[in-house]
């Protein structure tokens, strides 16, 4: 830098230095003011940072506590997970064992069901056979009852025939008495005796034949029926069926035959009724067992699904 040569130059140089110093002073004041502002703002920022730091520290402590709690909960959950896995494995093993047992039981129940169905079919077939046998027996019993009714009718007819024979015997006795009366009258009235003797002899011959037939138990043809009208006795012959006399001719009582047949049929009917009742009870038991087996199989299928 060149040295000034005059005072003016020194003055101008001083003025220039003063102006520069003033500018530097102003700049220094501005810088100082900015520094003060910076310091104040720095303090404010520092206070805010301290507050934030304290908040962060508190938040950190809280987060550490939460982290500790979460870590403890995580460890607990890990332990529970291990326990649950072990329990699940044991449960799966037990369930597999139960499933195998249930499958075996299902197979056994299916076989039992098939066996019961086969047994049920056999029982139904036996029931049908028993019912058919019972129907045939009832039909035979009905026929025997009809035969018994016919035999009873024949017995009644035999009783009626016995009554008729008794009446005929009474008539024969009356005729014999009339014969005696006519014999007495013959001694007094010869003409009347002639006609009366002829009638009495004819009547007595016929009555003797009838009486002999009744005494021998063989009434195979004409039977007498008497009509009394206006005091006159007229004898008429009538034909009668002799089929009802086979029991009397053979010496076998129809009541005994009918009762013996009923006595032989009744135990068989009683046994058939008891057999049918037993089969019905077995069918009911089998039906209940089939229902329970089907319910168990359905429940097993629902559990598997």
Automatic annotation (TrEMBL):
Family: Belongs to the nudE family.
Start and end residues of each NUDE domain: 138-207
A Pfam family hit: NUDE_C
Coarse class of the protein's main subcellular location: cytoplasm
Name of the molecule in the record: NUDE domain-containing protein
Keyword field: Coiled coil, Cytoplasm, Cytoskeleton, Microtubule
Species this chain originates from: Gnathostoma spinigerum
Compartments, record wording: Cytoplasm, Cytoskeleton, Microtubule organizing center, Centrosome; Cytoplasm, Cytoskeleton, Spindle
Coiled-coil intervals, chain numbering: 7-178
